[in-house]
Amino acid sequence: MKQIELNTAWKTNRESGMQVCEHEHDFYELVYYCDGEGITKVGGQSIDISSSICVLIPPHMPHEDFYKKNCKVYCIGFSYQETLDIQIIQDYRGIIK
Fold it and tell me: What is the chain's mean pLDDT, rounded?
């Protein structure tokens, strides 16, 4: 059986105008933007942040955030034994995730 290892889990409130500088991790990062507005850049691709957007970031992928409005953010960092096939998809509203 393949194991998932939890590396980190947290919730935070990001204020309007705040920026999280480019960084990367050695684990997957699942980020859920509960509300608010802004832009996240993952591997050089900009993705609009709005209510209920979820982004899965692979290990060693540079990423950064800029918040235009206050935003509640939930994050889970985890390791997995195999490489996941992550693709950029659009939700029913046409928003790139």
Answer: 87
